[in-house]
Write a structure and sequence with these properties.
By secondary structure, this protein is mostly helical. The chain is about 75% helix and about 0% strand.
Length: about 500
């Protein structure tokens, strides 16, 4: 890269609380969308609309994989955007209204035939995720730009996950306790079509509001972001940039870990509603209580990730929580099999599950926070090698992976439900015990295997800890300083008499 184009490193600074809160708030939109896709969409189209679960899972997976290819393009375009609003905010502002409108459409499908419904689901799901990408990818790319401080990045991304999960859980609690509350006509509230229509309206308004508020209140940070002079690029150049990203070893290890970790997440979210409704026999209000306790787990993760990172470094901390998470998450099923967990109907069942759920959530979210913070550090490593800052492209690559494999998690859930012959339109308490046993065993084995593979690839992350990161940032700052000095005109010397 020429000296005139050498980007400066981000400032090593602590951010004020208001900036962190505003930055994190925007992820409420992604959290609501993710919670809806993962916990409600399969149930809605399968049990309420009546489309076979395996077909719904397949269509969602295909739609999400197709949509995932949008992320690298959005990231690369964001990296190469020049405007008075910076590189990220134009995309953030433009996405707000389309996100809400499209999400509203997702929950109001035509019901003329299964084919018509599935085509509608595929098209609208792609459009929803594309609109979200236009906010989420540029917004995520702001994290490594706001500060280059090693530990401050973990804190900033902690707020992002706190609001993302918080928004998802608040919306789910509201949905299960109010919008899907049992009625005389629908004693199982999760099967009430009107509840999903109300959910769509409330969720859409919250998503649009969160995006606009976050964009407006982080706008003041544009002047502090690294000085970059983007160049025009063709589609071919964009694709070359995407390919170059894939050659970074640190990025590849995080990508490989995420493939297994986010497949596990998609599987867990999709099957948890089935397990809570049909295995634990919870009504909608109890499901809402479990969703609410996830907020406590997220709050625990917020502090846990920072403390572990400061004590053991990001990589080792991420390995630890990634390994522990699945064993805590499946412990209620293992203990039930041994006769050591409260039975259905016991007064101790909900409190016991709440405690386990809070701890498992804390470990799972802490793993995600640490992974995102490690991804931020990859940006400087790549800049050392290429001379370019490509925050948008790296985070887009991460979202690309998440969408592909989360879709696979939903597909895998649909296949498991079909494999165990889980009935459509099932009534809680009437599902055959052998079917439920097979469902639980399939879930437990899949979750543990996927998470252990995720931990293995995190352990392979090649970048050093804080000391190595600080050295990279210092070298980048020195390089940028030298480039600025070369661009300055040399002061004229000599006297008037020297002039001809």
């Amino acid at each position: 890269m020429e000296a005139s184009q050498t980007p400066a490193a981000p400032p090593v600074r602590k951010l004020v609380l208001g900036t962190k809160l505003a930055y994190g708030l925007g992820s409420v939109a992604y959290g609501i969308k993710d919670g809806g896709f993962a916990s409600l969409l399969l149930l809605f189209y399968n049990q309420v609309i009546g489309v076979p679960a395996n077909l719904v899972g397949l269509v969602i997976m295909v739609a999400l994989v197709f949509d995932a290819f949008v992320d690298p393009i959005v990231g690369h375009l964001s990296d190469h955007t020049r405007s008075r609003f910076g590189r990220r905010h134009p995309f953030m502002y433009a996405s707000a209204i389309p996100v809400g409108l499209l999400y509203l459409l997702l929950w109001n499908p035509p019901t003329g035939s299964h084919t018509q419904t599935l085509i509608y689901l595929a098209v609208v799901a792609i459009l929803v995720r594309t609109a979200i990408s236009c906010y989420e990818v540029p917004s995520a790319a702001l994290a490594p730009e706001l500060t280059a401080d090693y530990h401050e990045r973990t804190s900033v991304l902690g707020y992002r996950y706190l609001f993302g999960w918080g928004g998802s859980m608040v919306m789910l609690v509201l949905t299960f306790m109010v919008l899907l509350a049992p009625t005389a006509r629908y004693p199982v509230g999760q099967l009430n079509p009107a509840g999903y229509r109300s959910y769509a309206v409330v969720a859409s308004l919250m998503m649009t509001g969160a995006i606009l508020t976050s964009a407006l209140f982080t706008h003041r940070e544009i002047r502090h972001l690294p000085s970059v002079s983007p160049t025009r690029t063709s589609l071919r150049g964009t694709l070359r940039g995407v390919a170059a990203t894939l050659r970074n070893r640190a990025f590849l290890t995080l990508l490989a870990s995420g493939i297994f970790g986010f497949t596990a997440q998609g599987l867990t979210f999709a099957l948890s509603t089935y397990l809570n409704t049909y295995f634990w026999l919870f009504p909608a209000t109890s499901v809402a209580l479990l969703a609410g306790v996830l907020l406590a787990g997220v709050a625990m993760a917020f502090g846990l990730a920072s403390r572990l990172s400061r004590s053991f470094g990001k990589r080792d901390s991420a390995v630890l929580v990634t390994v522990l998470y699945p064993f805590v998450a499946v412990s209620p099923f293992a203990l039930r099999g041994l006769g050591l967990f409260p039975g259905n109907g016991s007064a101790m069942l909900v409190p016991a599950l709440m405690a386990v759920t809070a701890l498992a959530t804390a470990l799972g979210v802490a793993s995600a926070i640490l992974g995102a913070s490690m991804m931020s550090d990859v940006v400087e490593d790549a800049q050392m090698r290429t001379g370019e800052r490509s925050e948008g492209l790296f985070f887009a690559g991460s979202f690309f992976m998440q969408k592909c494999v989360s879709g696979f998690g939903l597909f895998l859930s649909g296949e498991i439900l079909s494999l165990v012959q889980f009935p459509t339109g099932a009534t809680p308490g009437k599902v055959a015990p052998q079917v439920l046993h097979n469902l639980v065993v399939s879930y437990v084995v899949s979750l543990v295997a996927l998470q252990l593979l995720a931990a293995f690839f995190v352990w392979r992350f090649p970048l050093g800890g804080k000391h190595a990161h600080d050295e990279r940032v210092a070298r980048l700052a020195e390089t940028a300083s030298h480039a600025r000095q070369r661009r300055r005109p040399s002061p004229q010397t000599g006297s008037k008499d020297d002039c001809p």
